[in-house]
Amino acid sequence: MPLLVVQIPALNEAGNLPEVISTIPRDIPGLDEVKVLVIDDGSSDGTAQVALEAGADMVVRHPRNRGLATAFATGLHYSLALGADIIVNTDGDNQYPSQEIPALVRPILEGQAEMVIGDRKPGKLEHFSWLKQRLQNLGSRVVRTLTHDSITDATSGFRALTREVAMSLNLTSTYTYTLESIFQANSKCFNLASVEIGVNETKRKSRLMKSIPSYLLKSARNLLTFWTMYKPMQVFSSLGTILMLLGLFLVGRYFWFQLVAPDGADHFAALVIGAVAVVIGLFLFMLALLADFIGVIRTMLDNLSLRTRRLELYTRQMAGHELGQDVQGLVEGVEILTPDSPSGGAEHAVQ
Questions:
Q1: How far apart are CA 326 and CA 328, in angstroms?
Q2: Single pTM value for the model
Q3: What is the mean pLDDT of residues 98-125?
Q4: Side-chain half-sphere CA neighbours of 8 within 13 A
Q5: Over the stretch 129-152, which tens digit does the pLDDT of each residue have?
Q6: How high is the pLDDT of residue 301?
Q7: How far apart (Å, rounded) are the C-alpha atoms in residues 75 and 40?
Q8: Which CATH architecture has domain 3-230+321-349?
Q9: Residue 72 in contact with residue 89, Cβ under 8 Å?
Q10: How many alpha carbons fall within 13 Å on the CB side of residue 283?
C-alpha cells in the first residue's frame, strides 16, 4: 500500500499555505494514500494553525527558527514515522505547483529513479534576473561535473525520494539541504533523475539569497565542503597530482639547464619551488588516503544509522501502532499538532 507524504517546511507562510495544501492532489495513480505534513520552523504568524485548517494531516512545530536544512531533516523523520513509502518535499511559498506532484513521483513508481528533482529551467525563468539565471545554471553545471549525475536544477527544493533514500540521508549542513542531499545520494549510488516542471512566481524574495555576493560565497563553500566530504580521494589526489607534475617539471627544467648550461644559479629558485611542490603533492596524496579512511568510518556510521532507522520502523509496525502514533521523542524540542487534537492544539510536546 504505497503511501506518499508531502512535507512542507514553512516559516511565516500563513498567507501561502492554504493554496499550497488545497492544490495537493490526494488521488494519484499508483498510490493508495497521500498525507500532508507541515514543518513550522518557528513561525510567528500562526502558520501551524493555518496549516491544520487548510487540511494538513500533521504539523511539527519548532519552538524557534532552526533553518531550512533542519526543517527538511525533521520532515524526513516524521514522514517516515507516518509510514511514508515516498516523500515529496515542496516549499511553503507556493513556488512549485502542487499539480506537478504526480509527474514528480512517476519515475519512482515506475522504478526508474530513487530521487527525482523538479527542473524549473532556471535559465529561462522570467522572474529571475539575468545574473540569477546564469548563476543557477553555473551551479547546476558544477554539481553535474563533480557528481557525474545528470541533475539539471541542483538547487530546486521540489523533489521526491523513496523511503530508502530518506532513511539513508544524514545531513550536516545548516544552510540548505539541496546540494548535500544530491552529493550524499550520489555517493550511496542511488539513481537520481530530473523532471521538468512549471513554476509559480513567488510573492516574496528568497530568504536564502539575501545578496548575490553572500549567496555566491555560501554556495561555493558548500560545494567545496561536500565535494571534499563525499569524494575526498578525488579532491586531494587531483590537487596532489597537479602539484607533483608542476614540481617535477620545475625540477626537470633545472637539471636540463644544468646539462646545457652548467652555471644553473639563475634557475636555483625554480628547483626549490619544484621540490616544495613535490613534497606538498606527496603530503596531499597521504591526506587523500587518510580522508578516504575517514570516509570509510563515516560510511560505517551511516550504515549503523540506517539499520537503526529500519529497526525503529519495523518495531513500530510490529507493535501495531497506527500511522503517526508513537512519535514522541523522535526529534527533541518539537511540538506535534494534529486536526484531532483539542482545538487543533498540541497533541504532545517534547521538551
A1: 6
A2: 0.80
A3: 90
A4: 37
A5: 677 777 778 888 888 888 888 888
A6: 85
A7: 10
A8: Alpha-Beta Complex (3.90)
A9: yes
A10: 7
